[in-house]
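Fold sample X.
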Amino acid sequence: MQTVFLDRDGVINENRVDHVKSWREFVFLPGALAALRWLNLAGFRVFVITNQAIVGRGIVPTSVVEEIHARMQVQVALHGGQIHDIRYCPHDDLEHCDCRKPRPGMLRDLAHRWNVDLSRAYLVGDAWSDIAAGHAMGIRSILVRTGRGAQQITRPELRQYPPDHIANDLLGAVAWMMHREEVALAHRGAAQPSHERAVGTPLFSLQ
């Protein structure tokens, strides 16, 4: 079964300089819900892995992060998608944990828990740290230009950890994955996405 690991802020929802501190501040990025629906139609397992140092820094308690995630999963389900599991790292940089990206602890934990075939897995993120975590586990990675992605493209870390693909957004990332996997969505009553324009914009609408 194909699997995709998604960063949260900047991939699924809008990134905020002051962090997402409540459900009121959580805003889905355009096309994200449609992309998650298409992943579900294609039979992908979807996992979210997100650094949430706002817990370790005392900005919000764990209960707030978990409430946001529960509400996010409900909204995704209402729009035809599914998030199978979520891991978040509550630690600050200085705690040197194994789970905070670019370290791969969250990926390793989910892969073990769900018996993931990493050779068939993808990772989508908006930062070099996401891509580096994917490299550590041998997972094909996609950098999106949403969130911090457009600024991250020029960072020297991406030369060390180059993504397999750069897409405009999660919809573009899904289109690329579908093309690679040759997912025959037509057999499930939907047109199969084929490929992207050179700039990463899908040639079709997933809305």
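Fold sample Y, listed below.
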Amino acid sequence: MRRGYKWVDRELARMDPETEWERMISLYVNHRVPEFALAMMIYPGTMHMMQPAVGAATLDHTGKLETKPHRRFQDGNDFLLAWMVDGVSSEVGRRAAERLNRIHMAIARRTPHLPGNFDDVDDFVYALVLLATFAHRLQISLGLPGMPEHMKRAWHHWAQAVFRLLERESGPLAGEAFPEDWNAMEEFARKFDSRPFEPTESGHRVATAMMCFFAERWFPAPFRAFGRDLTRYLAGERVCRLHRIGWISPGRERFVRLFLRTLFHAQRMLPDARTPLTERLRRTRRTNAQLKDLEPYQAPRHLRCD
């Protein structure tokens, strides 16, 4: 394949999203998604997922997002790549689901003061809907076309398949209802987001820590205020006000939108990645010893996160 050739869209268009959705998601993520995009998905997405008070309290209790954010981001990447690149039905994908189930149940046992924190089916549905629709929702918010129909169908199959592998405290989710198609996923997210969630101190602490770490991890010191603005934009005004991490002025919002639109236009113009995302992440992966040297993490004192 000659350098500079735009080939991913052509390959995706040839595939059947009803039978080849795993291959479609793997190809798309491995050759279209940079590590920075995973970060943009994970941190603001987590802010959405912890809108329910019990979710924020659980994340605050574990402390991993605040004291071990490098490890948390690397672990999050491992789960996503297992399901998106290796495939939900692969041995790697199934083992990742089993590991996540064990982690959830272990945390549930250690938090008897938060009964049912891993038992609400809607929390699991919402998390997977957010992951599946993230790129589309972001593009639409920027006035861009969004996902083509065949990719919407593939992402719906992917989210539903991961959901079937997960377990809540009272049992497997395989027999529980999941939105029947892409439109139903979007409607579910709208209804979930419209619930009257209450602000919590836990939500504020964890959201602040995530926003600050995202800015520090991806932006040099002079641009970290912009990094925090980017995190806010990706989370959305309603979620930012819920967690009390502030919102951005109209001028700063326009600048963030310009930055994101430029990224999408650059992706459209530049050649599709020849080196798979899995290989790119392998080159920058930290060992356990390296991660321990970074823990417990403390945000620089000069960094304002309010």
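Sample Y note: The mean pLDDT is 93.
Also: The longest helix spans residues 121-141.
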